[in-house]
Amino acid sequence: MNVRRPRLVFFAIAGFALLAGTVLSYTSLAARLDNGVYDFLFQSTVHPHWQTRATLVTIDERTLAARGGMRSVRRMVADVLPVIARNGALATAVDITLADKGDEDEDAALDRAFSGTPNLVLAAEMMPDGSGWQEPIERFRKHAKAIGHVGALADAYDAIIRELPLERAANGRRHWALCVEAFRVATGADAILSSPTDVQIGQTVIASRWDQGRPMRIRYRVDGIPEISVDELLTQPERGRRLTGKVVFIGVTAFSAMRDRYFTPLSDSLPQAGVEIHAQAFDTIDGGRFLDNAPLLWPLLVGLAVALGVALLFTFTQGWWAYAGALAFLILANSVPKFTLANDLVMPFSGPAATAWIAVLGCASWQYFFVRRQLKASETDRVRYQQAIRFVTHEMRTPLTAIQGSSEIITRYNLPEEKRKQIGQMINSESKRLAQMITTFLNVEKLGAGQMELKKVSFPLSGLVKTCMDRVQPLAERKHIQIETPTLAAVEYRGDPELLEYAVYNLITNAIKYSPEHTTITLVIDHQGGEAHLAVRDQGYGMDDKEVKKLFTKFFRARSAGRSGEDGTGLGLSIAGQVITLHGGRIQVDSKPGEGSCFTVILPISETPDRAPALD
Predict the structure, then answer these.
(1) Are the beta carbons of 201 and 285 closer than 8 angstroms?
(2) Measured between alpha carbons, how far is 107 from 113 in angstroms, rounded to an integer?
(3) Within 147-251, where are the H helices?
(4) What gap in Å lies between CA 209 and CA 32, rounded to an integer?
(5) Is 1.10.287 the CATH classification of the domain at 396-448?
(6) Which letter, b or e, does each residue of 185-198 get, where b requires 16 or more Cβ atoms within 10 Å of its Cβ?
(7) What confidence score (pLDDT) does residue 20 get?
(8) How far apart, in whole angstroms, are the C-alpha atoms of residue 203 and residue 280?
(9) Which residues contact 178 (CB under 8 A, 6 or more apart)?
(10) Which of 300, 451, 462, 552 has the smallest count of CB within 10 Å of its CB?
């Protein structure tokens, strides 16, 4: 195999892995995976700690139970606002929609409380169909420094709140988020400036794209936002000192009475109140600890680096070193989002991870099977040479022994001329036999390596068959076997006559060797369409289907060969089959135990290749 081919395969696999990983990263499954990994990393990452200026004043279960339930919420807010104002809160954001008139006494009390609350921010909620806003009634709105929306940005795949829209627009009216307005009022900023890519509040700039809906990732505090219930403040006013210099968020947190509860990356089993989510978002802005999305090109570059690294790794290493390096690349690709998150950047996990896994599994599998193929080929060659050596040592021992013994007799004894002549003829015969064995062995090696040159000579097949018949006639006469040729069609063939003669001679000698005495062998040459059919039919012992399937395997001998008492190497039919295959033909075998066999050589009457391809 070409040395460059494995290397190109590794880089091709890496390229496919990069493409597949990039495509997979845009699927819904990848989005869910990225969300899950982000939540896990967010929970496991050590976040910087800073003092928060946000505080929650909550209408919890105990407050509702002690102060009249949800129908008295406006009264509760009216009662607690003076306590908050007296303790010097920096700003107060009320996360309760006051779009309708309520009880007149309660609304009047709330009106008076709002008028005495500095830096008041009230809530507006977008209509469910997005057609407009539910804003505080004018009686309350006139006291507010700002109106902020209380919407959240639940993820489309799992409804978890990871981001908050900084602004929302409906029916031509825009509202900034409650947390944004609370920050502006608390810092004394005159206005909120925006561009297509960011939002500026005083000296604070928040990277948030307009074309993406102005999202801002919330850096949730693991320890939560400090909170105190309305009931605690009203029954223990001295606790209000905790609100000095704080931005207070008032809202309902009672699980039984709250409809705006959402799951967050820190949620275990219970969702979080909407007012707390806005307080967390304010804390993110106030602390300046923003989580930005990594540039879109980063996952592609990381995937490209990992894919190239894996391809180079498997190109120049193998075995345990390659697998250890691959493990390192997998760890690197899976760890990049954790490193970026530690530096306030959120990078998708699925793209680089999928690229790394596909590249590693693909390259490792290809290398494994490629090495196995090499080992298998090497083992096959080793076994083949071992078998060849056994053949040489076993089959050549007999003629060598005969030659050696005969030569010793000639040199040691003064033999009559007739005897010396007989021994010389035997030495000559055994030498030719040995030379033929060597030629056969070399032919086996050349055929296996694809080094056998094919001659291209035109000759009649009938002449080739007659030549083979003349050579086997003495063997047939010794067994009283008759050879018949009822049909020898005149077929002119273009190929290698020496190799084809070897193949046909082998088929005829096998028919004689493995047939009982006083039987008949029939040779037929026929022309059918564009093919020449040369059939050798005997009346021998025959074979079953299992043996027929293995006939052309090297060193295989059928059971009938053993019963005949004939010696053999099991190479003749293997070589004959390869010779016929090299000429573009095939051998068809029909045989049944006890009924003889018919070997039919089918040759196409067309051009044959100049050089034989390597065969197994």
Answers:
(1) yes
(2) 10
(3) 178-187, 230-235
(4) 22
(5) yes
(6) bbbeeeebebeeee
(7) 94
(8) 20
(9) 93, 95, 121, 123, 148, 149, 150, 249, 278
(10) 451
Which among 587, 608, 582 is positioned nearest to 598, based on CA atoms?
A: 587
Tokens, residue 55 = 């505080």
CA dist 458 and 226 (Å) reads 102
Rounded Cα gap, residues 610 and 494, in angstroms: 12
- Given a contact cutoff of 8 angstroms between Cβ atoms, the answer to whether 70 and 64 are in contact is yes
Closest CA to 536 of 491, 477, 484: 484
Query: For tokens 């010396």, what's the residue?
Result: 420
378, amino acid identity: S
Which position has the token pair 């076993």?
394
Phi-psi label, residue 611: left if phi above 0, alpha if psi -120 to 50, beta otherwise: beta
Nearest by Cα to 230 from 246, 247, 252: 252
pLDDT of 610 > 60? The answer is no
In DSSP terms, 198 is beta-bridged to 207
Fold of 452-604: Heat Shock Protein 90 (3.30.565)
- How far is the C-alpha of 541 from the C-alpha of 544, rounded, in Å? 10
The pair of three-digit structure tokens given for residue 188, joined into one six-digit string: 């004394």
Which sequence spans correspond to the domains of the chain?
Answer: 4-42+295-375, 49-288, 396-448, 452-604
Distance CA(362)–CA(519), nearest Å, equals 61
Tell me how far apart the alpha carbons of residues 559 and 573 are, in angstroms, rounded to a whole number. 15
- Residues 550-574 have pLDDT tens digits of 777 766 666 666 555 555 556 677 7
Q: Which residues of 556-590 are buried (b: 16+ CB within 10 A; e: fewer)?
A: ebbebbeebeeebbbbbbbbbbbbbbbbebebebe
What length does the chain have?
616
pLDDT in tens, 321-368: 888 999 999 999 999 999 999 889 999 999 999 999 999 999 888 887
The residue written with tokens 């005997």 in the block is 538
User: pLDDT tens digits for 360-394?
Assistant: 999 888 887 876 676 666 666 566 666 656 656 65
Q: Which two tokens stand for residue 596?
A: 């003889």
60 vs 76, 320, 386, CA distance in Å?
11, 60, 88
Quick check: helix, strand or coil at residue 455? coil
How many whole angstroms separate alpha carbon 248 and alpha carbon 225?
11
The pLDDT tens digits of the residues spanning 233-244 come to 999 989 999 999
Instruction: Give the pairing type, strands 292-293 and 345-346.
Output: parallel
In 382-464 the beta strands, taken as DSSP E runs, fall at 457-460
- Give me the phi and psi of 192, to 5 degrees please: -105, 120
Return d(Cα 296, Cα 558) in angstroms, integer. Answer: 69
Q: How far apart are CA 395 and CA 511, in angstroms?
A: 21
Rounded-to-integer distance, Cα 410 and Cα 213, Å: 110
Q: Which of 188, 222, 224, 192 is nearest to 208 (CA)?
A: 192
CB 320, CB 267: distance < 8 Å: no
* 523 close to 469: Cβ distance less than 8 angstroms: yes
What is the pLDDT, as a whole number, of residue 335? 92
Mean pLDDT (whole number) for 517-522: 92
**Type of residue numbered 16:** F
